[in-house]
Structure formats: C-alpha cells, structure tokens
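Incident log, support desk, overnight shift.

02:14 A customer reports that sequence design results differ from what the structure should imply. Their input is reproduced verbatim below. On-call engineer (initials T.W.) acknowledged and began investigating.
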C-alpha cells in the first residue's frame, strides 16, 4: 500500500442529483463547465449509488463513466448499482426505489448498455496507508471472505493504469455477468453480530445487522427486531480501527455547529428517528461549507443525499478531501 501521488476527493452518494454533483464539483475547484479537470491534478473517487431516486440517474452515470474512461476518477460499487446489475441478468426483482431507472433502461437500452457494462466492473474497496473507502462498511470478516476471489482484477475488465494496485483492495465481483469463482453466495456469519440474512458482498454494500435494543416500527410500517449496526460507535471489533474509514449509504447531514457536529448520523438507516432528525434540521444546511475532521475521528459518512429525501429538502452532495482531512458539501441551485 501507499498514498496516491495526488490529492483525491471522495464523493458520497449522488442518487441521480446532477445539480448537486455540479455544485459540489465547483466547490471543490473542478472545471465543471468544461472537462471536469482540476488545476491541482486531483482525482475523484465516487463511493457508489450514482443512480435511482433523483431525476438524472443517466446523466450522473454518464459523467462518472466519462471521468473513469479518462483515468480521472474511479467509482466503487454501491448497493443500487448491484441491484441494477442483478436485475439486468434476471436475478433480482425491481425495487420501489429503482423502478424509474429500470423503465428508462428498457426505454433506452442502447444508451444504458455501456453504463451497465461499466457497473459490472466497479470495485468494492480502496485502501491506502491511512484510509479505507467502501460503500457501507469495512467489515473485516467480509473483506477476509471475499479477498481470495477479488484481490486481483478479472482479466475481462482490468482497471485503468492510474488505479491499479495497491489502492484497490477488492475488485469487481463479476465476470461476464456472473459472479466470479469463489465469491460466496451463502449468508454471512458475523463474528460479533451473528448470522446475517445476506452474503458478504451485500454486507459490504448495505451494512450488517444486529439485535435492536427495543422493537420499533420502520418507515414502511413493519415491526422490526433487527437493525443496521451502528458500527462506527465503540464496541464493534468486526470493524478495524487502525485507519479512517470513509463511506456512504447511511443517511447523514453536513456537520452543523450546535445541531449536528458528528461525522456520522445519530440514528441508523431505517429508523423512524432518522427521518424526524432530518425534518428538524435539514433547512439549516448552508449552501456550501467545509469542516476539518479531527484526527481522532475514525469513521466519516458522506452520504448527504438524505437532505433532499427529507420532506422539503434540497439536493446536497458531500465529499471527503484527502490528504487534507476535511468534509466539503454543496447544495444545488
């Protein structure tokens, strides 16, 4: 492992919000009205979930694909890209959040085909001497389980020369539309949280679950006894602590003094208190901002897309700048 020779900007979940991406890129100093280059030669890492929910899934995916093809960006796989790939090959049914995307794919298959091919090449995890980056969680058991199959890239889609090892820790799980040999499909058993409903691959992209301290009713009216683990808190040995982990997936909001000064959300995904938290505070998010992350902070969630999903919210995108160690955000005009 080593550190990239240039600065990198890790961009959180975008979910089809092209305006938020443009506002964030401009705030980070990219030439968003031209070729999306940076005067300092910085590179972009997209954390996944480019698509679904927002109005411009195609356009966001096209922008990232163009940057990737030039070697100016790499994109990790999110659970929404995984869902789309699995649907493409007949292994997954539509979900309520991706129906508009699927309908657009069926309407314009020739436009979407290169993007669907691109999604099948996306790696799962990036690691430097000081940083780990993945979509939802760096569960050490899941990484250990997947590493024999995914430590090397598949010859059918080698990485761009600017993004070869040592930074990519886990490469794409696909080969010609099928899972690569050795990628386990049985439910993962977590050393701390016990048996899980999903395989190790899905755990990395969605997070693992544990027993809830008390039963609760989720946003869909279902009674729940299991909840996504808040692995960024103390007492979770299944997640390594020796390097900072930057991730997305879990709805979060930019740090607001006096309201939300943490770098992870105060409630796990799916909990009704998370929606109430957004409703109470999203209007206070400034159009742009940046905050340095204290050295002691080991987990930074940059999924600021939840701001727009709260009632009355505005499209917002966030990024983590490395090696500067700060979070940056921008709200679309």
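02:41 Re-run completed on a clean worker. Output:
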């Amino acid at each position: 492992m080593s550190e990239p020779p240039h600065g990198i900007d890790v961009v959180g979940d975008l979910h089809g919000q092209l305006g938020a991406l443009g506002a964030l890129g401009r705030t980070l100093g990219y030439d968003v009205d031209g070729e999306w280059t940076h005067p300092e030669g910085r590179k972009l890492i997209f954390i996944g979930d480019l698509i679904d929910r927002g109005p411009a899934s195609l356009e966001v995916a096209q922008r990232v694909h163009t940057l990737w093809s030039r070697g100016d960006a790499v994109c990790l796989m999110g659970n929404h890209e995984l869902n789309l790939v699995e649907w493409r090959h007949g292994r997954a049914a539509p979900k309520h959040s991706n129906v508009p995307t699927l309908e657009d794919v069926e309407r314009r298959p020739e436009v979407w085909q290169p993007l669907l091919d691109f999604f099948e090449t996306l790696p799962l995890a990036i690691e430097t001497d000081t940083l780990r980056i993945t979509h939802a969680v760096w569960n050490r058991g899941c990484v250990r389980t997947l590493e024999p199959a995914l430590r090397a890239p598949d010859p059918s889609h080698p990485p761009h020369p600017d993004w070869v090892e040592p930074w990519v820790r886990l490469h794409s799980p696909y080969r010609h539309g099928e899972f690569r040999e050795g990628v386990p499909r049985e439910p993962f058993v977590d050393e701390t949280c016990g048996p899980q409903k999903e395989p190790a691959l899905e755990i990395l992209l969605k997070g693992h679950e544990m027993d809830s301290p008390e039963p609760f009713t989720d946003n869909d009216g279902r009674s729940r006894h299991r909840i996504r683990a808040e692995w960024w808190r103390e007492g979770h040995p299944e997640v390594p602590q020796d390097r900072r982990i930057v991730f997305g997936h879990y709805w979060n909001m930019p740090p607001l003094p006096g309201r939300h000064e943490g770098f992870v959300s105060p409630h796990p995904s799916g909990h009704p208190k998370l929606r109430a938290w957004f409703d109470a505070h999203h209007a206070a998010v400034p159009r742009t901002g940046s905050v340095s992350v204290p050295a002691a902070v080991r987990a930074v969630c940059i999924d600021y897309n939840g701001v727009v999903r709260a009632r009355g919210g505005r499209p917002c995108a966030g990024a983590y700048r490395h090696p500067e160690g700060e979070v940056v955000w921008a709200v679309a005009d």
